[in-house]
């Protein structure tokens, strides 16, 4: 953009006209520099820019599975588990990325991975980024790239101003080309750095897998799949203009060290494979519908996963009454599985059987060893729907437990607001609604309900102070 603007600069005569032209060019340059900085930041840290808009999904079963995959890897990498969150993104594409202390995993990554080891390899790679401090160093590289491009742009601007003031249009164009060339060089340097960090994370992943006695085969399998997906267009991809190495390059870099692993031929435990397949069936039922579940059921070796997917699809798209005996059959074969009872609770809710849902969710919460607040939240919801005073009071207790385990769950706050409202406790109902809006990112609405809640409590009471915190919260400026 700068090159075009400078090339069109007309000759000027006289010191006043020349001074005006220079000021205009400086303003244009400042605008361009600012635009470059924003684009560079957004390109290098997409999660930071997009995480608030990502379609995040919550599921106790799949979150527990991913946690079991990641925990030994985090320990091997020296990364604290209690400071790292794994977030599930509702997207059918195969992708995972890191932002801050969060690892984001697309649902499509799980569905498209035939084995747990493939997802474990992906997580090991992302943990390599965390342990290596790659995000912090990337920000330093962004600063360096911006400095290079700005200095080059200043040199180009100086040449262009001198040429334009003397009427030399071709030299002015060259000055603009120097500015644009500097930006391109900075961009290529940044992309080259990112590609090197990706290869470093790949090697770190193999190290973590070896330390935990797991096979690095899944990493190679993943890159082989990616290579097949881009085979028809790979000759049209400029490898110097992408942020990740080409899959064939990653396979070449990893294959030797991966095959040297004493665990290369180690298979996933059968029980873990079954959990993985059940997670895949569940995701397909919720996101792709009965036909996708049937295709999966015909291909999978796990009869249990096939039945699980069919039961969920039947309850979502057919009749809860037909789904209930299907899930009961699975429970009979695996009565200690909390997530089967959780699905039964969901089926009972759809069938408008609040008492049956309370019973199922109570069993699920008792059996759940992962400490998930989601099942407690579902139990609280069922108790609210039961509606009698005793159930409502119990709902408040269960939802408070849920929020102590998962304090940023807006759905639990919504159910809590319903429970308090039906009990006639308007102050706590409005405070819970303020929390729901706050944790959903609806800050202005949160402030409205927080102001209402403050009027219901004595000044400096705990509820008043929390409402005051929400009301005083500085809403982030949208970029």
UniProtKB/TrEMBL annotation:
<dbReference type="GO" id="GO:0016020">
    <property type="term" value="C:membrane"/>
</dbReference>
<dbReference type="GO" id="GO:0004222">
    <property type="term" value="F:metalloendopeptidase activity"/>
</dbReference>
<keyword id="KW-0479">Metal-binding</keyword>
<dbReference type="InterPro" id="IPR011990">
    <property type="entry name" value="TPR-like_helical_dom_sf"/>
</dbReference>
<protein>
    <submittedName>
        <fullName>M48 family metallopeptidase</fullName>
    </submittedName>
</protein>
<keyword id="KW-0482">Metalloprotease</keyword>
<dbReference type="InterPro" id="IPR001915">
    <property type="entry name" value="Peptidase_M48"/>
</dbReference>
<dbReference type="InterPro" id="IPR051156">
    <property type="entry name" value="Mito/Outer_Membr_Metalloprot"/>
</dbReference>
<feature type="domain" description="Peptidase M48">
    <location>
        <begin position="62"/>
        <end position="257"/>
    </location>
</feature>
<keyword id="KW-0862">Zinc</keyword>
<keyword id="KW-0645">Protease</keyword>
<keyword id="KW-0378">Hydrolase</keyword>
<dbReference type="Pfam" id="PF01435">
    <property type="entry name" value="Peptidase_M48"/>
</dbReference>
<dbReference type="GO" id="GO:0046872">
    <property type="term" value="F:metal ion binding"/>
</dbReference>
<dbReference type="GO" id="GO:0051603">
    <property type="term" value="P:proteolysis involved in protein catabolic process"/>
</dbReference>
């Amino acid at each position: 953009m700068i090159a075009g603007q400078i090339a069109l600069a007309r000759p000027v005569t006289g010191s006043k006209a020349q001074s005006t032209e220079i000021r205009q060019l400086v303003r244009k340059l400042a605008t361009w520099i600012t635009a470059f900085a924003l684009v560079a930041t957004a390109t290098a840290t997409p999660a930071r820019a997009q995480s608030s808009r990502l379609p995040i999904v919550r599921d106790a079963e799949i979150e527990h599975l991913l946690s079991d995959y990641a925990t030994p890897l985090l320990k091997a990498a020296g990364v604290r588990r209690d400071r790292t969150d794994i977030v599930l993104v509702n997207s059918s594409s195969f992708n995972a990325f890191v932002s801050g202390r969060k690892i984001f995993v697309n649902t499509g990554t799980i569905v498209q991975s035939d084995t747990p080891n493939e997802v474990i390899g992906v997580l090991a790679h992302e943990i390599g980024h965390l342990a290596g401090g790659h995000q912090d160093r990337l920000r330093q590289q962004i600063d360096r790239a911006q400095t290079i491009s700005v200095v080059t742009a200043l040199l180009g601007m100086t040449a262009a101003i001198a040429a334009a003031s003397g009427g030399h249009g071709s030299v002015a164009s060259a000055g603009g080309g120097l500015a644009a060339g500097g930006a391109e060089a900075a961009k290529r340097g940044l992309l080259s750095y990112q590609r090197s960090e990706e290869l470093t994370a790949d090697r770190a992943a193999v190290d973590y897998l070896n330390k935990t006695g797991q096979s690095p085969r899944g990493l190679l399998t993943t890159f082989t799949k990616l290579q097949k997906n881009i085979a028809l267009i790979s000759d049209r991809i400029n490898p110097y203009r992408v942020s990740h190495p080409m899959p064939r390059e990653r396979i070449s870099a990893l294959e030797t060290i991966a095959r040297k692993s004493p665990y290369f031929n180690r298979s996933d435990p059968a029980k873990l494979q079954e959990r993985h397949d059940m997670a895949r069936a569940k995701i397909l039922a919720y996101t792709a519908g009965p036909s996708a579940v049937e295709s999966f059921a015909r291909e999978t070796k796990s009869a249990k996963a096939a039945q699980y997917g069919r039961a969920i699809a039947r309850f979502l798209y057919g009749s809860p009454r037909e789904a209930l005996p299907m899930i009961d059959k699975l429970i009979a074969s695996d009565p200690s599985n909390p997530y089967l009872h959780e699905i039964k609770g969901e089926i009972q809710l759809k069938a408008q059987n609040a008492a049956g849902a309370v019973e199922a969710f109570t069993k699920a919460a008792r059996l759940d060893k992962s400490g998930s607040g989601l099942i407690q939240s579902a139990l609280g919801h069922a108790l609210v729907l039961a509606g009698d005073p005793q159930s409502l009071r119990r709902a408040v207790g269960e939802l408070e437990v849920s929020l102590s385990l998962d304090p940023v769950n807006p759905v639990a706050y919504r159910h809590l607001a319903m429970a308090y409202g039906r009990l006639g406790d308007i102050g706590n109902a409005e405070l819970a609604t303020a929390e729901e809006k706050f944790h959903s990112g609806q800050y202005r609405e949160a402030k409205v309900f927080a102001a209402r809640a403050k009027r219901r409590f004595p000044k400096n009471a705990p509820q008043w102070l929390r409402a005051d915190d929400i009301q005083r919260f500085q809403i982030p400026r949208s970029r």
